[in-house]
Every structure is written in C-alpha cells, then in structure tokens.
Design brief:
By secondary structure, the chain is α/β, with parallel strands linked by helices. Helix content is 46%, strand content 17%. α9 links the parallel β5 and β6. The longest helix has 26 residues. The chain is globular, with a radius of gyration of 23 Å. About 7% of the residues have low confidence.
Length: 392
C-alpha cells in the first residue's frame, strides 16, 4: 500500500496532484487545512493537504476508477469535518483497544521474560489479535478479516508499533470499502435510476429522500415512476411525497407503460423508478424485475443506473442469497438502509467485497430528507474497529 500527501492552495488542486501522480485508482484517506503560524499567517494563505493511498496489489475492480474524481465533488459524500488527521482520529480508538489488551499483555510479559524485542513482538501480536477479534465482533466475515490482517502483517516492518498497525488496518479497510458512488448530475446527462431489492428494505422512503435532495437542494427537474403496484400503500406513500415535493409521478403496470412513462419524462433531469419488492426466494418474480429493467428503453441522451437496496440489519446468509439472485439484473450499486436498527455493520464490508459492487448511499431513519447520505468510509472503518462514531 502506497500512502502519499499532497499540498496545494485548495482541495481540488491537491486532489488533482494525487490523481496525476498516483492514478485514478487512488483513494483519498484524509483532507485537512494547514494554517500558518506566527507572522506567516498574515501574509500567506492556508494550504490544503490531501492524504491519498494506492493499493499495489488490489484488483482494479475493487475500487471505482473515478475514486479521486468523486472525492473532488461537493455533495452529500463530503464529511463535515475533514481537518482532523488520521492519527488524531484514531487516538481514542487506540486507547480503547490498548486498555482492553492491557491485562493479556501483562500476563504474556510475565510468561515471557526474554529480551525487549520479544516483548514488543508479543505486544504487537496481542494487539493484532484484539483488532481481529473486534472485526469479528462487528460481524465482518472471517475470510475478509483474515485477508485484511494478513495483508497488513505482510507489509509491517520489524520496528512497527501499535500506532502503525492500527493505522495500517484502518487504511486497508478504507481501501477495500472504496470511494462511494453517487447519482452524479454534474455531467448534465439525464438519468433513469432504478431501485431494486427485497420487500421491506425501504426503497420507497429512500427514493423520497433522494427526490427531496435533488429537487429542493439541487434545484433539478425530478420525476417518479413506480411499478410497485402489489402494495397499494407503497404507491400512495410515494404519491404523497411526490405531491409534497411538487414532482410528477406515473404508476405503471407493464413494460410498455414503463417505456411510455420514461419517454414522457425525457425532458427531466432525473427519473427515479421504484420497483416492486421481490422475495429473493421467488426467482420468477425476480426475473420480472430483470426483464423490466433490461428491456426498458431510454433516450440516447439518457443514462440508466441501478441501485440494489439492502437492509443492514439482514443476516449475512440471507444477504448472500439476495445478491446472488439480483446479480442477474445487471451492474448495480449498493444502498444500505436501517443502519439505526443494528449495532454490527460488518455486512456492509462483506457484501462490498463479495459482489465488487460500489457502495453508495446509507440511511439511518425515516425522516425525509435528512436521514440519508453517501457512505463515509472513514467513519465505517472506525466503527468496525470498535470506535463509537455517530456518522454511520
């Protein structure tokens, strides 16, 4: 793993430097503003420092090729506070892990009355084991936890201490999570965005939240289509949101009606499509969804995108079955809902690594439009390592 820092007068230029030197596969780990001290602050402007990382052996499919470009955007994905260095962010987490480890290390020291190097080895091994157990506690799949620890251990130097071990694991998780993918309207291309997923995961509410953001905050022309006619409540719920937001909505029952609706809304910037929730155990119903999306036609000036909506509270075994069924629909991005209903978020990393699909938005409540944002990889990595970060 290669980690470098780049400084410039503004965030955009610093990120462009990182992109030019490290390539578009690089991932931004941290952005902070450096203020001059003393008399210099009167004559020199603050500078921005970007810390970027590049995984030397990671397959390119695991990290979006536009990671640096996305990081340069100004949208939901940008954390409110980027001024704190990685080391500072990990201080409280390390203190917590060290305090948990203290008794075990003291016992190991008593049993091993050898030289100082051996003592340091024992301490580091105990620390790595504790971090590994913390990942398992947060329901990271054992296979992926072993992979992360193994990759970090292979790159450690003999003089590595707990600081470098924790920082290495933290950065490795961020790299594996990748840069979140967003509905990007900056290219001025009209988008038809389909939301798919099992019943009860919150697709309709997620669409309402996004519609509110793009309509009210970004001032775009938004339209809605729903084919979820199996649940009358779902149609009425979306219609209510549409009326409040002042956006048109079309209910469709067939592929022909879907195409007519898309054609009718072709002058809109963003068309959000709510599909019927389907049980992953009913392959026939899932095939209907695949057919609806694959055979729907869009204008040559439009782009089609798919988002698979999953609940973070769903068991990993069930998530594996769900993604296996929905992979036939086509390339999709991942939206995780109900983060407020679970204390273990390891499944987000598990599904990301299992599918190779880009993570995108997360939701943590029912409030429209507040309870949605792009996934914050730094916050999630800290949470998986045992930190108490409310950003998830």
């Amino acid at each position: 793993m290669i980690i470098k820092k780049f400084q410039a007068s503004n965030e955009k230029d610093a990120i462009l430097q990182a992109k030019e030197e490290m390539g578009s596969d690089a991932v931004v780990l941290n952005i902070k503003t450096i203020k001059h001290k003393g008399v210099k602050r009167l004559f020199k402007k603050d500078i921005v420092e970007v810390t970027a990382a590049l995984e030397e052996r990671m397959p390119t499919a695991n990290i979006p090729t536009n990671a640096i470009d996305i990081a340069a955007g100004k949208d939901l994905e940008k954390p409110e506070d980027k001024s704190t260095a990685i080391e500072e962010k990990l201080d409280s987490l390390q203190e917590m892990l060290v305090s948990q480890m203290k008794n075990n290390v003291e016992k190991a020291d008593k049993a091993e009355k050898n030289n100082g190097n051996k003592k340091e080895e024992n301490t580091n091994f105990a620390f790595i084991q504790l971090v590994y157990n913390q990942l398992l506690e947060n329901e990271v799949d054992e296979k992926y936890a072993n992979q992360i620890i193994s990759e970090v251990e292979s790159s450690l130097k003999k003089e590595s201490n707990m600081d470098t071990i924790l920082s290495g694991i933290y950065q490795k998780i961020i790299l594996k999570l990748g840069q979140p993918y967003k509905i990007d309207m900056e290219d001025k291309t009209s988008k038809v965005v389909f939301f798919i997923g099992p019943t009860g995961v919150g697709k309709t509410t997620t669409i309402a939240k996004l519609a509110s953001d793009f309509k009210l905050d970004k001032k775009l022309k938004v339209a809605m289509i729903t084919s979820d006619t199996y649940r009358i409540a779902a149609v009425e719920q979306l219609r209510t949101y549409a009326n409040i937001l002042g956006v048109p909505i079309q209910v469709v029952y067939t592929l022909e009606e879907m195409n007519n609706a898309i054609e009718g809304f072709k002058e809109y910037d963003l068309i959000l499509v709510d599909t019927a929730g389907r049980s992953h155990k009913n392959k026939e119903q899932c095939e209907e969804i695949r057919h609806m999306i694959k055979d729907s036609t869009v204008d040559e000036n439009q782009k089609k995108e798919i988002y698979l909506v999953l609940s973070a509270a769903t068991k990993y075994k069930d998530l594996l079955n769900i993604v296996e069924v929905y992979e036939k629909v086509g390339k999709y991005n991942l939206v995780f809902t109900k983060l407020d209903e679970t204390s273990s978020l390891g499944n987000i990393l598990n599904v990301r690594l299992k599918t190779g699909a880009s993570l995108s938005y997360v939701t943590c409540g029912q409030v429209v439009p507040d309870d949605i944002r792009l996934l914050d990889a730094q916050a999630l990595a800290k949470k998986l390592l045992g930190g108490d970060d409310k950003e998830e």
